[in-house]
């Protein structure tokens, strides 16, 4: 997408930011309506689970969990938007979506893509250039779609709705702050309640139970490992492993909150941490803090990566990460990515999960992750606070 289109969408988003004041998720309808013309398309069809959710404003769980049950939010350049959903999801869509025109198909009777074709024909969109999420659309559905509409050129528009999602509205920021702080509190309380003799599974369950009890409708992931298993970034807690004194405990967890989620990581000690562990951990937190403190409008996404890499060198830490963070919203990893080559200038309203990690001399992995929002003057932390510089120990209260 051209810079001019991105800037135009950003201006529309900034206008919406000033109007959204509640905790409910509200998509940027003005930017969505303007999108097809700005992109030179006759229509844009948002149909990946993330793009449909954002474009429609309706969170339909089965769109993500039952992939054949496709849903489409269609944004024509010259007429009103409409959506096509499975008939059993019609009432939910009508109750949550800003789109008034809802069409349906019957599962196992109609092919979803055929219902989309019929709706496009009725809307006068049987020819021209139409964008659709080719990063997600199944090959079989694409073949059926192009055969039914031979006069339409379908192009990939996955990135177009994604570009609107880059800068969050006030309702999104408020929701992400609430989910993140609830998850942070869930972790603090769970680890304070943990003790030597608890298995990995017992500790992880305390986190999961707290996440739900504190406001989530479920858990998205609970990655949990200790001792020799910490180098596995996405390990699952085991019932047969009891962390011992001297072991590190590392976890990356997230709860689900409707269309949104949380994503939060910390490193603890099971007890009696070594001096080497304390030093490596403190150095990692210093690197994370330096990267967070550098967040400001105009800074490039890749600048934070290189700054963090330089800080690792100053602290004497090895650096092997392909990225040090990412944006976050209706999708777990959204743009911008804090990686080499991402030259996106940071703008107020962007949110960033900053999450450096490092392995020590024996291969144990340390990881810390915090969410921030870019403001007009710098940043605001959306967690309860950056991790303490002293390696925390289970069973102890951490501020």
In CATH, the topology of the largest domain is named Creatine Amidinohydrolase
Shape annotation: elongated
Unreliable sequence segments:
1-6, 10-23
Q: Can you give the mean pLDDT?
A: 94
Task: Determine and state the CATH class of the largest domain.
Answer: Alpha Beta
Distance between the termini: 44 Å
Q: What count of domains describes the coordinates?
A: 2
- The radius of gyration is 23 Å
- Portion of residues in beta strands equals 15-25%
Overview in brief:
By secondary structure, the chain is of the alpha+beta class. It has helices spanning 3-17, 29-39, 49-56, 61-65, 90-96, 112-122, 139-148, 158-165, 170-192, 200-213, 275-293, 301-315, and strands spanning 43-46, 72-76, 82-86, 101-105, 128-132, 152-156, 218-226, 248-257, 260-261, 264-269, 325-327, 334-337, 351-354, 357-359, 365-367, 370-374, 379-381. The two termini are 44 Å apart.
Structural notes for this entry:
With 399 residues, this protein is of the alpha+beta class. It folds into 2 domains: 3-165, 3-Layer(aba) Sandwich (Creatine Amidinohydrolase, Chain A, domain 1); 170-381, Creatine Amidinohydrolase (Alpha-Beta Complex), CATH 3.90.230.10. Helices cover 37% and strands 20% of the residues. The protein has 12 helices and 17 strands. It has helices at residues 3-17, 29-39, 49-56, 61-65, 90-96, 112-122, 139-148, 158-165, 170-192, 200-213, 275-293, 301-315; strands at residues 43-46, 72-76, 82-86, 101-105, 128-132, 152-156, 218-226, 248-257, 260-261, 264-269, 325-327, 334-337, 351-354, 357-359, 365-367, 370-374, 379-381. The strands form 4 sheets. It has a 6-stranded mixed sheet with strand order 4-3-2-1-5-6, sandwiched between helices. Helix 6 packs parallel to helix 7, helix 9 crosses helix 10 and helix 11 packs antiparallel against helix 12 (301-315). The longest helix is centred in the middle third of the chain and has 23 residues, at 170-192. The protein is elongated. 48% of the residues are buried. The model is unreliable at 1-6 and 10-23 (pLDDT under 50).
